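so im writing up the methods section and need the Subtilisin-like protease SBT1.1 record in one place, dumping it here so i stop losing it
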Amino acid sequence: METAAMVCKTALLLLVFIAAASNASTDMQTYIVHMDKSKMTASGQSPGNSKEWYVSVIESLTELSDEEERESEQQASPQLIHVYTRAISGFAAKLSTKQLESLKRLDGFLSASPDEMLSLHTTRSPQFLGLEPGKGLWSAFNLKSDVIIGVVDSGIWPEHVSFNDQGMPPVPTRWKGACEEGTKFSKSNCNRKLIGARAFFQGYEAVVGRINETKDYRSARDVEGHGTHTASTAAGNLVANASIFGLAKGLAGGLRYTSRIAAYKACWSQGCVSSDILAAIDQAISDGVDVLSLSLGGSAKPYYSDNIAIGAFHAIKNGVFVSCSAGNSGPSTSTVSNTAPWIMTVAASYLDRSFETTVTLGDGQTFEGSSLYVGKATKKLPLVYANSAGDVLASYCIDGSLKKKIVKRKIVVCQRGINGRAAKGEQVKLAGGAGMIMINTEREGEELFADAHILPATSLGATAGKAIKKYLNSTKKPTAAIAFKGTVYGKPAPLMAAFSSRGPNEVGPDLIKPDVTAPGMNILAAWPPLTSPTQLKSDKRSVLFNVVSGTSMSCPHVSGLAALLKSVHKDWSPAAIKSALMTTAYVHDNMNRQIMDVAFSNTTMATPFAFGSGHVDPEKASDPGLIYDITPEDYQNYLCTLNYSASQIALFTGKGFTCPKTSTLQPGDLNYPSFAVNFKRNSKTNSVTFKRTVTHVGIPGVTYVVQKNEPTGVSMVIEPQILKFEKPGQKLSYKITFAQNKEPTVQDSSFGSVAWVYSDTYHVRSSIAVTWT
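--- predicted struct ---
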């Protein structure tokens, strides 16, 4: 009995110990920690020994003097994950709550934020953008200089023809990067085109556990396809006769196709961890990239708690242009992400190319859709709405929801949402269906994605969806047929994509975001041959190019354009390149109409909250006439106007910076190439004056005259109205006063523009958005 009691007691103690250890483990979380670099030198450490200093900091956390805090047998050891030297001064570490509290008491601590999981947000684009081989920006002279584009994404497929280095000169001697070895990736996979490849997974594995190397590559090799697609969009080689199943056939190439590429894999099957993204940015700055392209992000947040914003700030301080996707949460308002003023935030719009289908109903109605399916047209077949073909979720055609006896040999109507678009077709096929029609909700409007379906299928807009539902309810034997018309050119474009995230900018209402729009809908670009075009398990097809949509696709377009401009204007700052792209952007389509918004039917005009300054025009951007330049010091003073605390500003500037005490600056005075005006509703004294300074970069001896398009309900007074420049490099300033001249309507916003014009040569335009709150 006594022995049994002892065994019982021992077992109980063991359970308590296990529970305590488990609780200690679950208490551990990854934090990104910002430290004051000056304290490192004060402690006798040199800046080059930052890792040693951070290791000593981590070790000190386990040497607690207080017995109540020690609990060494129950407290897991802290784990150093990343050390940052360029993007920020600090590190990422896995810490317990008590270890974090101890860290906060150390001299040199600035702040700590929990790590978070972010998400990934590509033959026709160059021609649509006006780029022609041998001419303008694509002339041999402009393309011969070395520009390095760093792509932070899901990796790269190095053997792809888009990354062949045939005919390329040696790697620039200034390059400090490396080709890291890992799962099915060796140093020989890099070449004179793909000059660097690294993988960042320590933060990711701290959250989800070790990467399963049977499903993903624990290296820079890409299994998702996303990174290969974006890298080739920005800088892939010219490839003749590129297509997917013969569709979109033509000459494929990146916007700056002679650029070098450095791939930084920070995104994995479950997402991208911010500590890894920050490590990738940090490394890219050290390696020597000229342009950084990040087609990823999360929800918008204050800049001091946005690690991409902090990392990007340190990149532009080092002369690196940073382009980010605006996000795919449209058309809801105030959904735009990556909104820091030093980031180029890119929205997505349509090309003039489509992949058309025609759906014909039994009563003769026809509707235009979109698909990458290349088989024969279907016969007239019975039509069934999925909500009558299974359980409560069957209308979305989700996994296992369809009943075979109801859908067999029929065309099934599926509602968009919940699961993937191609995955709906897979479910229809598995249930014996003969085809699929995917219809939009009101929220998606007339958006038409082209997908590589595994059975005859097409997408249709919300208007067609309503008509089909009405038809299904009007007859006992509904039928339909789907015909596939292939690649069609000459469509109205650009057209704003419904999914593209919108303003106004909640984090910085003094800035219009996004900044510009670029092609992001149904974009053809490189794809890993071992990854099927739909990424469905049942899809065994292999393609070298795939059509994908998202602001992830528009972002690398602008990254490539920035690299082109950097070739022509080697002395331009990141802000100067950004200004040139913004002030030369256009707001009319190829039918000479205002750019339309597909989210609200094809007859509703888009606004700057959808397209920013407009659609990029690279050839005009190469000779903009005037630029709105911004220095890192200007951005620092802008942060002061946001009433951030000294410790919050120190995340960008370091501890040595102090805000000007006598400054009369306001957020809207940042020398930004657009204007966001915020008025109070029900106020009779709404008026504000902003100052801007422009730098002449065009031909000498030029006089600009101002042209204005006043927003509804607002008057504008611009002083002076003439700017006379004698030589390039000269700077002149002007002020613009916005005043409410009548009560705002039910609308919360109105829009206009101001432009400085010289003859037919230069038209330097800035978007204006006035918002009443």
